[in-house]
Structure formats: structure tokens, C-alpha cells
Design a protein that fits this description.
Domain HTH gntR-type: 20-87
Shape: globular
CATH superfamily of the largest domain: GntR ligand-binding domain-like
InterPro entries: GntR_C (IPR011711), TF_FadR/GntR_C (IPR008920), Tscrpt_reg_HTH_GntR (IPR000524), WH-like_DNA-bd_sf (IPR036388), WH_DNA-bd_sf (IPR036390)
Structural class: mainly alpha
Radius of gyration: 19 Å
Order of helices and strands: HHEHHEEHHHHHH
Strand content: under 5%
Organism: Pseudomonas parafulva
Keywords: DNA-binding, Transcription, Transcription regulation
Protein name: GntR family transcriptional regulator
């Protein structure tokens, strides 16, 4: 256990956390460490170890772990408790099919309400994606780009569901962007998407988004097939 505590301390830090900030601070530190790979898939995260590390009770730790489980970053395993989830599961293609349904509806609701500032922000993310080479940053910028275009949707629960799925994709992109052939090739779709949104061409934008997501699903399907063949 001492070795595990040293590992967690080196990854997460060990300074005491103010009680009123404990849940959010612990959640963010764990999320960041999972996303950038410092806590690899299969790592067990025990409440008592984390509580001791941060000098808090188990309650904020338990809540932080629940939030990360809801984001598909953790899963609960019998006899091990919360563990860091695999980078991608066999249901990844189904996830993209679900994203098509959720995100096209969010785009449909959002486009009529987008203003010039929203469009400029989205174009700014595209410009950064064109120049960025760090996979971690590409994943983050991709999520922010999409959420900007959906941000004016009226259904807030829909947006929360989409952000969960985008968080999952962000994590996967951080590790497998080059191997899967994603990255700069997607910018043509992003440009076409924001152009259609700017011109209030809702159906055209939805068509671009469907193509964009379906292409990603096909890429993931090929990736999973190649992994299964190894």
C-alpha cells in the first residue's frame, strides 16, 4: 500500500485540500491524470487511500469518483472498487451512433441562436487545431469546438449528455490520434460545419456533422478490428 500511495502522490500531489473545495479539486486532478495517461487503464482508486492523500473524509472522494464514473472515466469492478476505465470499449461504434442522434439535435437547436462571437470562437478553435501537434491539446480543442456549436441549444440535459461522450472521445484521441489517422484530416469537416452554421444552413450543417461522426465511427471500427487481430 505504501508504494501505491507514493505513486498516487507523485501523480496527484499530496497537499491538503480545503474541505469546501475537496470534491471539485479531487475530481479535476483525477480527471486530468486519467486523460493524459498518468493513471493508466486498470488502476484501482480506493477511497481510503485518496482521502488520506488529500487529508479529507471519504465523502468528497466518493462524490468525485461518482462524477468520474458518470463521465465513463472510471468503472466499478467487483472486489477492486473504482478502476480507471479502458481507453475504448467494444461499444465505441454504438457510442458514435448515439452521438449522431444527440449532436445533430443539439446542432439543430443551437444554430438559430448562434451569434458572431460564437462563430468566431469556433473558427478560433479550428485555427488552433490546424497548428497544434500535441495529441492531448488536439483532443481538448476538438471537444471545445463541438461544444461551442452546440452551446446555444435549449435542452441543457442534452448538452450534458453530449459533453460526457465528448470527454470519452477526448481521452481516446489523446492516445490514438496518429494510429487511427485522425487529426488534420478532420479540419475540412470542421470548416464546412462552421461555414454552414454561420449561414444558418441547418440541414446542410447536420449533413456535414453526420458524415463527420460516421467517418470517425468507421475509423474506430477498423481500429478495433486491427486490435482484435493482434
Amino acid at each position: 500500500m505504501a508504494e501505491k500511495i507514493r505513486l498516487l502522490s507523485s501523480v496527484l500531489g499530496n497537499e491538503q485540500v480545503p474541505a469546501h473545495l475537496a470534491r471539485s479539486v479531487i475530481e479535476e486532478r483525477l480527471r486530468s491524470a486519467i486523460l493524459d495517461g498518468r493513471l493508466p487503464p486498470g488502476t484501482a482508486l480506493r477511497q481510503e487511500e485518496l482521502a488520506g492523500l488529500f487529508g479529507v473524509s471519504r465523502m468528497p472522494v466518493r462524490e468525485a469518483l461518482r462524477q468520474l464514473e458518470a463521465q465513463s472515466l472510471l468503472k466499478v469492478v467487483m472486489h477492486k472498487g473504482a478502476v480507471v476505465a479502458p481507453l475504448i470499449g467494444e461499444d465505441a461504434v454504438d457510442t458514435y451512433n448515439l452521438r449522431v442522434l444527440l449532436e445533430t439535435e443539439a446542432l439543430r437547436q443551437s444554430i438559430p441562436n448562434l451569434d458572431a462571437a460564437d462563430i468566431a470562437l469556433a473558427r478560433g478553435y479550428i485555427a488552433q487545431l490546424e497548428e497544434e501537434t500535441r495529441h492531448a491539446e488536439i483532443g481538448r480543442l476538438n471537444r471545445l469546438f463541438h461544444m461551442t456549436l452546440y452551446s446555444k441549444a435549449s435542452n441543457q440535459k442534452l448538452l450534458r449528455l453530449i459533453e460526457i461522450e465528448l470527454n470519452e472521445e477526448e481521452r481516446f484521441l489523446r492516445f490514438h490520434l496518429s494510429a487511427m489517422g485522425l487529426g488534420k484530416l478532420t479540419q475540412d469537416d470542421h470548416i464546412a460545419l462552421v461555414d454552414a452554421a454561420n449561414d444558418k444552413l441547418v440541414e446542410q450543417a447536420i449533413e456535414v456533422l453526420e458524415k463527420h461522426l460516421n467517418t470517425a465511427a468507421q475509423t474506430i471500427r477498423r481500429y478495433l478490428s486491427s486490435q482484435a487481430a493482434k
